[in-house]
Design brief:
With 219 residues, the chain is mostly helical. It folds into 2 domains: 171 residues, no CATH class; 44 residues. It has 9 helices and no strands. The chain is elongated and about 75 Å long. The relative contact order is 0.13.
Amino acid sequence: MTDFIVDPLVEFCVDVIGAIGYIGIFLLMLVESANIPMPSEATMLFAGFKVEEGELTLLGITAAGVLGNIVGSWGGYAIGYWGREELLERHHIFHVSPRAMAKVEDWFERYGAITVFFTRMLPIVRTFISTPAGAAHMNFWKFTIYTALGCIPWVLMLGFIGVQVGANWEEWRDKLHYFDYVVLAGLIALAAWGFLKWRRGRAEGVTEARADSEPAAEA
């Protein structure tokens, strides 16, 4: 259904990498991480194919891809961090209540690191996760470190698969959706665990408050 959109983007990625190699990989992965959807699977799988042909190296394409993702994520982070007042508080372009924003901030304070890490391996989500992290004022260096840690296995895996499958890299682009489902299931499990932990902590807080109030009432 989306082939008429994706196929031209894939061809564009192929042309860019074929023309400027590592710089092309860096730029394409930068764009993909800066709130602009770009098929990173196609970028890194084709880059792996070029490694198999002897034109590039696995270390080189991994470094270019990870650095591109990191630099691009800074742009998305900056939009959320510096644009929060304009988008949410002043002009209300996005209707997010102060209470909801407080919950987002609390989430990133508690689980921001692991959220950023895992979402770097999910399609679409990885493109946009930087902006809410910035809006929640997640620590910049913590955000950068976990962005890098999340990007490395994803980029390396795609590049390695591209090396192994060679000219069949396009066929494997569609098969990677199964991996996306595994990561998504892990995120859902993580969210459920966080919710249960929060609920348990809240229940314990209520119990302690009642216990403290009983002696005072008896006195």
